[in-house]
């Protein structure tokens, strides 16, 4: 007979999911109530307000999609892209490629702006793309590319879209709550994220926000949204403000308890403090890695503090190191993707996992495993370098 599943206690320092706070895990276990219960409707309104704080927006259409970040991505594209629309898509990693796939599945025409993996999106190349394609009505790009650990200039790219009378679709799956994100100030139009990264929540929910201009475009569509479940005009019947909530789907009630708790924790800490914590722990981790003799894959000015791409030393077995970390230390780090597979590790310091304790744990475990493999590293140098920054 199959028995109950009891997972081990891992330290999650990969590209996501990240460690979940005990407060959030506790919230999941609270009694389930109906998704149309007046108390749950009240909770929904609180979640919308807390998400507006996290996104730094006053957009009325700010909600959690009842599915992972990939569904949030699809929600933005299926609602804003109609057959024949020209969309400029910036790709500097895996997730820009997924944007292209969404455009094409919606019947749109994707004009690609490609940059090297490990480099930010080029604003100049994007400007040139608009000059060559004045018919483009949308710009899509990734703010924080999870596959490479690179941050792009979202403010400049959103401004460029506005200059060309286009709307912007922005992937903030890894950036929300980890680095500065100002939806209204930057003029972003359709923004999606995920709960399992810097929000330190359980996977399975995708916060999204749409500007008034994006909502107007949705309302003026000539073609039906190709997804019934993700059609914002239908979803707003359930999530809309000042309306009688209409049944659309059975919301994941307990998952939304978890999201609410994680957003309460973010509000308690404060966005600026959360950003500073991610940056401080990132700098300590980098100092330790470099003292050990490792190098970073991304230039300092473009690095994500919450997702650190590290070059794998020559002669080191990538998979063997990650397997040993998991088996011997219950520590998960991520492999490289696509063009960076076998070349980099991705070490996450996201949300609840962004802590001095995890910095020390990671450096200690990585040094032990690399030493065991015979890698050429500076044994004993990492922890002093990291702790010097953690104790300042």
TrEMBL record:
Q: Which family does it belong to?
A: Belongs to the class-V pyridoxal-phosphate-dependent aminotransferase family.
Q: Which Pfam families match?
A: Aminotran_5
* Species: Halioglobus maricola
Q: Where is this region: Disordered?
A: 1-20
**Residue list for modification N6-(pyridoxal phosphate)lysine:** 197
- Asked whether the UniProt record includes Transferase among its keywords, one would answer yes
Read off the InterPro entries from this record.
Aminotrans_V_dom, PyrdxlP-dep_Trfase, PyrdxlP-dep_Trfase_major, PyrdxlP-dep_Trfase_small, SP_NH2Trfase/AEP_transaminase
Among its keywords, does the record have Transferase? Answer: yes
Residues recorded as binding substrate, renumbered to this chain, are: 346
Coiled coil, from the record: none
What is the official name of this protein in its record?
Alanine--glyoxylate aminotransferase family protein
């Amino acid at each position: 007979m199959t028995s109950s599943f009891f997972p081990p206690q891992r330290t999650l320092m990969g590209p996501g999911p990240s460690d979940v706070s005990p407060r959030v895990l506790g919230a999941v276990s609270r009694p389930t109530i109906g998704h149309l219960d007046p108390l749950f409707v009240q909770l929904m309104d609180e979640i919308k307000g807390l998400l507006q704080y996290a996104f730094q927006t006053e957009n009325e259409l700010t909600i959690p999609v009842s599915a992972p970040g990939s569904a949030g991505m699809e929600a933005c594209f299926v609602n804003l892209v109609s057959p024949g629309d020209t969309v400029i898509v910036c790709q500097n990693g895996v997730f820009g490629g997924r944007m292209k796939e969404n455009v094409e599945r919606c019947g749109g025409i994707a004009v690609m702006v490609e940059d090297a993996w490990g480099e930010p999106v080029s604003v100049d190349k994007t400007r040139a793309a608009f000059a060559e394609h004045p018919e483009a009505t949308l710009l899509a790009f990734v703010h924080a590319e999870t596959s490479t650990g690179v941050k792009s200039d979202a403010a400049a790219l959103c401004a460029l879209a506005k200059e060309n009378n286009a709307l912007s679709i922005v992937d903030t799956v890894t950036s929300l709550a980890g680095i500065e994100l100002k939806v209204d100030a930057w003029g972003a139009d359709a923004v999606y994220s995920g709960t399992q990264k810097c929000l330190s929540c359980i996977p399975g929910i995708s916060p999204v926000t749409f500007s008034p201009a994006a909502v107007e475009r949705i309302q003026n569509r000539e073609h039906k949204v190709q997804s019934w479940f993700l059609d914002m005009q239908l979803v707003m019947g359930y999530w809309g403000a000042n309306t009688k909530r209409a049944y659309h789907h059975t919301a994941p009630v307990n998952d939304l308890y978890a999201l609410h708790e994680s957003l309460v924790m973010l509000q308690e800490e404060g966005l600026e403090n959360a950003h500073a914590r991610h940056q401080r722990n990132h700098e300590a981790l980098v100092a330790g890695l470099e003292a050990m003799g490792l190098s970073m894959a991304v230039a300092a000015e473009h690095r994500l503090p919450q997702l650190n791409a590290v070059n794998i030393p020559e002669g080191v077995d990538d998979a063997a190191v990650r397997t040993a970390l998991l088996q011997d230390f219950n520590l998960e780090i991520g492999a490289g993707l696509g063009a960076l597979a076998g070349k980099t590790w991705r070490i996450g310091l996201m949300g609840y996992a962004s802590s001095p304790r995890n910095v020390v744990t990671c450096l200690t475990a990585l040094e032990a495993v690399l030493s065991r493999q015979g890698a050429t590293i500076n044994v004993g140098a990492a922890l002093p370098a990291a702790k010097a920054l953690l104790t300042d």
